[in-house]
Write a structure and sequence with these properties.
The protein is an alpha+beta fold and 416 residues long. It is built from twelve helices and 17 strands. The longest helix is centred in the C-terminal third of the chain and has 22 residues. Bound molecules: (2S)-amino(hydroxy)ethanoic acid and manganese (II) ion (2 copies).
Length: 416
C-alpha cells in the first residue's frame, strides 16, 4: 500500500477535550479515574463513546461479552476492517489515559478522516474491549481473550468479583450484553495505541514506542491457612500466623524476581487477610503473585521456585498452602508487517522513536493470536501508571495518534 502523505495529522485539541470529557465519568479521589468494568460508571462511559462514534458516522456493533465495535465503511464493504482498539475500563485508582487513549485516539482518527474527506478501501473499526484490567473480574484482558478463543464464554461469564457478583450478571445488569456471538467478527489487522506505563520513552526523550514484543504474565493465587487466635493471649510458640507466612512468601517473590534481573519482575498487588481484625492473628490469607518476563522459560522457572520455596516456608511454620493459576499469557511477538507500518509512520512524521517491549499486558496480546497486530506507545510522566497521578502531555497523545492514523491508512489503503 502506498504510504499516506506525512502532512496528514489529527486534531490534538479535539482528542484532548474528549479525553478530559471521558475522565469526568467515574472520577477517582485524587484526579484519576475509578471506572471499573461493568459498573454504572463503565456503562455511562460506554454510552458517551457510542454517542461520539455515531456522531462520527460509525455503525455500532456489540458482542455477547460487551465488546463494542464502531465501523467506518470502506469502499470495499467485503474487505475485512482494519481495527484500532483498547479499553475504557480503569483500575480502582487508575489514570485518565491507560486504555482510554487507545479508544479515543482511534475515534480521533475516524473524526480526522471525516474532516479530510479521506476514504479507505478496507472499512476501519474501533474496539472497546470489556474488562481489560482484570481487577474486579480476574484475569486481565478477559473479553479480548474470549474473542481470541483463549477462554470459553461460559467460564468468563462465571468469573466473580469480591462481592460474589458474576461477570455475566453484571454485564446483563448494565445492559451492555450484545446479541453478536463473540469472536465471529474477522479483522484484517489491529493497532493498539497505549501509554507506555514505564519510564523508558520519557527517559530517552523518545515520542513513540514501536512495540515489537509484549512480555509474558503469570498470576498465581496463593492461599495460606493457619489458625485465627487472640493476638494478646496466644503464646508466641503456639501461633499459626498465616499473615507472617505470607510476609515470608512475599519476601521470596521479590528475591525470585531479582534472581532473574534485569528483565523479570514480581510482586503481589492483591492481598486479602481474614478475618482482618486488629486483635486476631490471621488464620487465612489469599494473595495473587504477579510474575512477568519477556522469556517464557524464566516465567516457568519463577513459578516453580515460588511453589518450592513457599511450600518449604509453610511446612516449617505448620501452615497450609494452596496454589491456583488465575491468569497468564506467553510472551508475544507482534506482526512484523504491522510493526513496520508503525515504524514507517513515525519516521515519515518525523517523530523520535525506538523499538520497545511492552511491560504491561494489553488486549493486543490476545488479538495478535487471531489477526496481524501491533502497538504504538507514547511516554507517560515518570513512567507512572495504575496510579491516579498518571499523566501524559497533549503533544505525546497527538504524536501517538498521528502514527496510529498513518499506520491504519497504510494498512487500509487510501482511495484517491
Ligand atoms: O496487568 C496488566 O498488565 C494490564 O494493565 N491489565
Ligand atoms: Mn491498559
Ligand atoms: Mn491497566
Amino acid at each position: 500500500m502506498p504510504a499516506p502523505g506525512e502532512n496528514l495529522r489529527v486534531n490534538g485539541d479535539r482528542l484532548w477535550d474528549s479525553l478530559m470529557e471521558m475522565a469526568k465519568i467515574g472520577p477517582g479521589v485524587a484526579g484519576g479515574n475509578n471506572r471499573q468494568t461493568l459498573t454504572d460508571a463503565d456503562a455511562e462511559g460506554r454510552a458517551l463513546f457510542q454517542r461520539w462514534c455515531e456522531a462520527a458516522g460509525c455503525e455500532m456493533g456489540l458482542d455477547s461479552m460487551g465488546n463494542m465495535f464502531a465501523i467506518r465503511p470502506g469502499t470495499e464493504p467485503d474487505a475485512l476492517p482494519v481495527y484500532m482498539g483498547s479499553h475504557l475500563d480503569t483500575q480502582p485508582t487508575g489514570g485518565k489515559y491507560d486504555g482510554v487513549l487507545g479508544v479515543l485516539g482511534a475515534l480521533e482518527v475516524v473524526r480526522s478522516l471525516n474532516d479530510m474527506g479521506i476514504r479507505t478501501r478496507h472499512p476501519i473499526a474501533i474496539a472497546n474491549w470489556t474488562n481489560e484490567e482484570g481487577t474486579r473480574f480476574a484475569p486481565a484482558m478477559l473479553s479480548s481473550g474470549v474473542f481470541a478463543g483463549i477462554h470459553s464464554e461460559a467460564w468468563a461469564k462465571d468469573r466473580k468479583d469480591a462481592a460474589g457478583k458474576t461477570f455475566g450478571g453484571e454485564l446483563k445488569r448494565i445492559g451492555w450484553e450484545g446479541a453478536e456471538p463473540v469472536g465471529e467478527r474477522k479483522l484484517h489487522a489491529m493497532f493498539e495505541l497505549h501509554i507506555e506505563q514505564g519510564p523508558i520513552l520519557e527517559a530517552e526523550g523518545k515520542e513513540i514506542g514501536v512495540v515489537t514484543h509484549g512480555q509474558g504474565l503469570s498470576w498465581t493465587q496463593v492461599s495460606i491457612t493457619g489458625k485465627d487466635s487472640h493476638t494478646g493471649s496466644t503464646p508466641m510458640p503456639l501461633r499459626k500466623n498465616a499473615g507472617l507466612g505470607m510476609a515470608r512468601v512475599l519476601e521470596l517473590v521479590d528475591e525470585i524476581a531479582w534472581r532473574h534481573a534485569p528483565h523479570a519482575v514480581g510482586a503481589a498487588g492483591h492481598i486479602d487477610v481474614f478475618p482482618n481484625s486488629r486483635n486476631v492473628i490471621p488464620g487465612r490469607v489469599v494473595f495473587t503473585v504477579d510474575f512477568r518476563s519477556p522469556d517464557l522459560a524464566v516465567i516457568q522457572d519463577m513459578e516453580a521456585q515460588l511453589k518450592l520455596g513457599a511450600q518449604k516456608i509453610c511446612e516449617e511454620m505448620g501452615l497450609g498452602i494452596a496454589f491456583e493459576k488465575v491468569g497468564g499469557f506467553d510472551p508475544v511477538t507482534f506482526d512484523a508487517g504491522c510493526v513496520a507500518a508503525v515504524r514507517g509512520a513515525a519516521e515519515r512524521l518525523g517523530y523520535s522513536h525506538r523499538d520497545i517491549i511492552s511491560g504491561a499486558g494489553h488486549d493486543a496480546c490476545w488479538i495478535n493470536q487471531v489477526a496481524p497486530t501491533a502497538m504504538i506507545m507514547c511516554p507517560c510522566v515518570g513512567g507512572l501508571s495504575h496510579n491516579e497521578a498518571e499523566e501524559i502531555s497533549k503533544d505525546w497523545a497527538t504524536a501517538g495518534t498521528d502514527v496510529l492514523l498513518h499506520a491504519v491508512l497504510e494498512t487500509a489503503g487510501v482511495v484517491a
